[in-house]
Protein backbone atom coordinates (compact mmCIF):
# COMPACT_ATOMS: atom_id res chain seq x y z
CA UNK A 1 0.00 0.00 0.00
CA UNK A 2 1.11 3.54 -0.77
CA UNK A 3 0.12 6.60 1.23
CA UNK A 4 -1.21 9.40 -0.99
CA UNK A 5 -1.71 12.99 0.18
CA UNK A 6 -4.12 15.74 -0.88
CA UNK A 7 -4.16 18.97 1.09
CA UNK A 8 -3.90 17.78 4.73
CA UNK A 9 -5.57 14.40 4.10
CA UNK A 10 -3.74 11.10 3.66
CA UNK A 11 -5.20 7.89 2.28
CA UNK A 12 -4.03 4.42 1.28
CA UNK A 13 -4.11 2.96 -2.23
CA UNK A 14 -2.40 0.04 -3.91
CA UNK A 15 -0.21 2.39 -5.96
CA UNK A 16 0.60 6.09 -6.27
CA UNK A 17 -2.07 8.05 -8.14
CA UNK A 18 -2.22 11.66 -9.33
CA UNK A 19 -5.36 13.29 -7.94
CA UNK A 20 -4.14 16.89 -8.26
CA UNK A 21 -6.99 17.62 -10.69
CA UNK A 22 -9.35 17.40 -7.69
CA UNK A 23 -7.77 20.55 -6.22
CA UNK A 24 -9.41 22.51 -9.08
CA UNK A 25 -12.75 21.66 -7.47
CA UNK A 26 -11.79 22.94 -4.01
CA UNK A 27 -10.09 21.82 -0.80
CA UNK A 28 -10.11 18.11 0.01
CA UNK A 29 -11.30 17.61 3.61
CA UNK A 30 -11.83 13.84 3.72
CA UNK A 31 -11.28 10.69 1.69
CA UNK A 32 -13.33 7.50 1.87
CA UNK A 33 -10.79 4.90 0.77
CA UNK A 34 -11.94 1.84 2.72
CA UNK A 35 -15.09 0.96 0.74
CA UNK A 36 -16.11 -2.69 0.29
CA UNK A 37 -16.72 -1.93 -3.39
CA UNK A 38 -13.13 -0.77 -3.93
CA UNK A 39 -14.32 2.71 -4.94
CA UNK A 40 -12.82 5.89 -3.54
CA UNK A 41 -14.75 9.06 -2.71
CA UNK A 42 -13.57 12.54 -1.79
CA UNK A 43 -15.09 15.27 0.33
CA UNK A 44 -14.41 18.63 -1.32
CA UNK A 45 -15.04 22.06 0.17
CA UNK A 46 -15.77 24.70 -2.41
CA UNK A 47 -16.41 28.12 -0.89
CA UNK A 48 -19.09 27.60 1.72
CA UNK A 49 -20.39 24.31 0.30
CA UNK A 50 -19.17 20.81 1.14
CA UNK A 51 -19.42 18.35 -1.73
CA UNK A 52 -19.35 14.60 -0.96
List the helices and strands and how they pair.
Layout: E1 2-6, E2 9-13, E3 27-32, E4 41-46, E5 49-51
Antiparallel strand pairs: 1-2, 3-4, 4-5
Provide structural commentary.
With 52 residues, the protein is mostly beta strands. It has one domain. It is built from no helices and five strands. The chain has strands spanning 2-6, 9-13, 27-32, 41-46, 49-51. The strands form two sheets. The chain has a three-stranded antiparallel β-sheet, with no helix packed on it. A two-stranded antiparallel ribbon has the order 1-2. A hairpin with a 2-residue loop joins β1 (2-6) and β2 (9-13). The protein is globular, with a radius of gyration of 11 Å. The mean pLDDT is 86.
Offer a few descriptive terms.
single chain, globular, two-stranded antiparallel sheet, mainly beta, 52 residues, three-stranded antiparallel sheet
Amino acid sequence: MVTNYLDNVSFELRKKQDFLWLKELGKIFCVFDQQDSGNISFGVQNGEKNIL
